TrEMBL record:
This is Amidohydrolase. InterPro entries: Amidohydrolase, Bact_exopeptidase_dim_dom, Peptidase_M20, Peptidase_M20_dimer. Its EC number is 3.5.1.-. One of its GO terms (molecular function) is hydrolase activity. It holds the Pfam family M20_dimer.
Amino acid sequence: MALTYPLTNEAIFTQMVEWRRHFHRYPELSFQEVETPKYIAALLKDLGLDVREQVGGRGVVATLQGAGEGPTIAFRADFDALPIQEENNVAYASENPGVMHACGHDGHAAALLGTAHLLTEMKEELNGKVVFIFQHAEELTPGGAIAMVEDGCLDGVDVIFGAHVSSDLELGLYNVRSGAIMAAADAFSVEIQGKGGHGAKPHTTIDPITAGTSLVNDLQRIVSRRVDPIDQAVVSVCKFQSGNAFNVIPDTVSVAGTVRTFNKETRTQIERDIERIVSGIELTGDVTCSLTYTKGYPTVVNHEKETTIVKEVMKDKVGEAAVIERPPMMGAEDFAYYLENVPGTFIHVGAMTDDPDTQYPHHHPRFNFDERALGNIGTLFVSLAENYLK
Ligand SMILES: [Zn+2]
Ligand SMILES: [Zn+2]
């Protein structure tokens, strides 16, 4: 695969890199973004765009009116960082202790700013509107997307696209797939209340540990026995806490885990199954259980028509071999909320090369990516705007 970035505007590309490094140097946590949205809004105002700030909390939305009438196309970039201490030794490393852009959202914001510049230069040739959605808080549920949608960021929008850099996809490649591509992610926790006592006199206690281990085992039957084998789902118990002495039966057990699904019905069914299993444990273990089931982001479902358009446009632009289709992922993304409201698609853009520094997984303290991916996101967005508005 040739390591090229097709974006031909060298000056804008250089600026994208500068913006990205600025965001990287000053990362802000989800729902605590102050300077990042201010910086973005100022640049968008300089372009003469119609800018709305504090959309759904901390989001920024800018609108570009083309010369003629036509449809409205939206692009979304997120801009929040993660509670991670950066371990990269780069000149633009994070200056905020314990906070790091370790998912590439710094790049998303920079690439969308570059796209806004490129499309503004072309506005006389565009028929319709472009809406640039800069979203806060993607990394933390309930996320910024749902609040921005409620605050009208999609009003009048006909179609929406989003992109994510990917450190496990080669630079130059675009992963474009129709249907469910990222999972719905829910969380559950169960507090089991028994009655503690002496380890030598179990009959005088209500043992929450045996009840808890039964619960963990029973939960394994959901995916293996209740979910259609053709469908995909995960139920993982990731926390089991109890007790602190070898001869004391404790009072309580705390169990928690995650549920990942692609199918809406499966998601609802698993939630009911967990409720049913927990009630069963109360009966068989003589314990009292309190279950909390928290719904996270829904499944990211790419719309077929728009996905096909992206494939055609990009095959034409960067060649057949650069547009690939990978299996769905169990990770989650609140871009799902936009796609529940308007048609569109979410694209993974390759950002990894032979350089080991570009190969760390997302959310790793050494995560970084090849910045030519910014140019590739710009190419993707500008090509789509041309397709819809020219
Ligand atoms: Zn992330
Ligand atoms: Zn991300």
